[in-house]
Amino acid sequence: MIGKRSSPVREEAHGNRTGQQTGTAPVGPPHRPEALREATRQAAARRENTFRTRLAIGEKNARKRMATLGAVYDADPAPRRPHDVITPPGGRSANYTPRPGPVARGKWLCGSVRHDAEHVVGQVFDHAEARDPHHRRRWVVLVDGARHQLDLVQAEARLHGVDVHIVIDIIHVLEKLWAAAWCFHRTGDKATERWVATHALTVLAGHAAEVADVIQDQADHTELSGEQHRGVEACVRYLRNNSEFLHYDQALKAGWPIATGIIEGAARHLIADRLDISGARWGLDGAEAVLKLRAVRANDDLDAYWEHHLAAEHRRLYPACDQAR
After folding, report:
1. Pick from 19-23, 172-176, 274-278, 288-292: least confident
2. 208-220 vs 226-241: helix axis angle to the nearest 10?
3. Are 123 and 70 in contact (CB under 8 A)?
4. Model confidence at 93, in pLDDT bands (50, 70, 90)?
5. Domain-by-domain residue ranges, the chain?
């Protein structure tokens, strides 16, 4: 539920099944120096750029403060098979129509620049529990495999007394496979795509550990540079360390989502479209206020919020009037 993204999905224990996905993701709008976190501020102070007027290749300006977003939504389970998600190397049959994934409804967003990921994850779980207070539904959490994410999700699940099923976002697995693929293939080699598709389909079938062994064996019998070996090892280590959360065969059969497009979209329209516009540099209070206001509007709660705001301002400005009633 944090780091790159994460999500609980829930389904009814009986009758018609429904699902709820929640998730969080960090994105970084540019901030003024006084609004940066201490580590980022220190990095900016130590920075010595190659050029005076622009950044060189690989240089970063260290002026962004990470925001964390959260999302909760309901969705009916949509059972699928691996070939519905990824086209096999030989292509699909002309008569085969891929089955669609779950469709979100009742989406709710939250976010913060000021507070850390733990705070936002707590908000997400609180809202999910408000929708399912008796924990009658199954909760599935989508993450990107970062240990910090897993620790926060598991701690929050224990706090709420709910069983969660953790599944790593398939997009992150594909990124690792592509990174390893380039260690074995030249740029532009069409065999690269077939290599990735073959291994991805095997992972989706629930055999991530086997894929890790095959890739490791290929690396052991291929002349690779030190950098290429490190790229392959990163993929193999990722698959092995997270194999517990790569049971896509079970997730697809149950109809759960296996990717976090909802949270990626939220990062775009809550953060990038406003806070990351060209030339903008934000103070902490302003960025937090704009982010929360955009989340309220995205949740269709703006009218209710505005009525609450006017009533609160009236009580603040005219406390004697309220006391006289």
Report:
1. 19-23
2. 160
3. yes
4. confident
5. 1-29+65-169+259-325, 170-244
| 39-84: pLDDT as tens digits | 655 555 556 656 666 656 655 555 677 788 888 888 899 999 999 9
AA letter at 114: R
Q: What is this structure's pTM?
A: 0.78
| Helices first, then strands: H and E counts in the chain | 13, 5
Residue 256 in this model has a pLDDT that exceeds 60: yes
Q: How far apart are alpha carbons 15 and 193 in whole angstroms?
A: 42
Amino acid found at 53: T
CA nearest to 128, candidates 141, 115, 116, 118 = 141
Helices within 132-225 (DSSP H only): 147-160, 170-184, 191-204, 208-220
Using DSSP's 3-state secondary structure scheme, residue 112 falls into: strand
| CA-closest candidate to residue 1, choices 138, 130, 245, 166 | 166
> pLDDT tens digits for 102-144?
999 899 999 998 888 899 999 999 999 999 999 999 898 888 7
Name residue 28's amino acid: G
Return the HEC string of 35-46: HCCHHHHHHHHH
The backbone torsions φ and ψ at residue 73, rounded to the nearest 5 degrees and listed phi first, read -155, 160
CA atoms of 189 and 64, how far apart (whole Å): 37
Question: From CA 134, how far away is CA 243, in angstroms rounded?
Answer: 30
Q: Quick check: 83 and 92 in contact, CB under 8 A?
A: yes
pLDDT mean over 6-26: 43
Q: What are phi and psi of 242, to 5 degrees?
A: -110, 15
- Dihedral (Cα; 70, 73, 78, 79), 10-degree rounding: 40
Q: Given the structure tokens 């795509």, which residue do they identify?
A: 193
Token pair of 225, please? 């540079």
